[in-house]
Amino acid sequence: MIYFLTYIHAISWLHFHEAISIYSVYFVLNAASVSSDLFLFFILASSLVHHKSVHLRPQDLGKIS
């Protein structure tokens, strides 16, 4: 449950279409019995790195959507 709440918090920083695609992959792989903890860790790491590198610029730090 902690992992899931952290995941929800992380995707709240992402744009809507990114959140939808991450959810889609999550549910597909979860249905395929992939380890959910491992998968959540991977998604959290990759989405946060992607978000920071692609979407954040120094002038945007005060207004993260």
From TrEMBL:
Superkingdom to which the source organism belongs: Eukaryota
Protein keywords: Membrane, Transmembrane, Transmembrane helix
TM annotation in the entry: 20-49
Record's keyword annotation contains Transmembrane: yes
Protein name: Uncharacterized protein
